[in-house]
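Title: Comparing notes on inverse folding

I've been comparing how different people in this forum approach sequence design from structure. To keep things fair, I'm posting one structure and asking everyone to reply with a full sequence. Here's the target:
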């Protein structure tokens, strides 16, 4: 659950809130006139979310992941000891 702050209260406590976001994986929502206006998360979390969305948008990759999952469910796997470990 996101903690909610008005723009006015956020303005007053901005630096301590940013420190919490950065150091404690804390999130909060800012409202403007009682309506949600923004959510503040750390840059690291934001970057991870963007990367995940980019992967999800790659239809070829999603297809390969689904195919791999289906093969694993069917027991069609290779033990690491059976692989060539990348050596040629």
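Reply #1:
Here's my take.
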């Amino acid at each position: 659950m996101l903690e909610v702050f008005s723009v006015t209260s956020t303005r007053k406590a901005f630096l301590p809130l940013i420190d919490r976001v950065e150091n404690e994986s804390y999130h909060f929502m800012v409202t403007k006139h009682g309506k949600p206006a923004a959510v503040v998360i750390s840059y690291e979390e934001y970057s991870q979310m963007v990367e995940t969305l980019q992967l999800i948008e790659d239809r070829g990759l999603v297809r390969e992941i689904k195919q791999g999952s289906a093969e694993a469910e069917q027991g069609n796997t290779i033990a690491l000891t059976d692989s060539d470990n990348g050596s040629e």
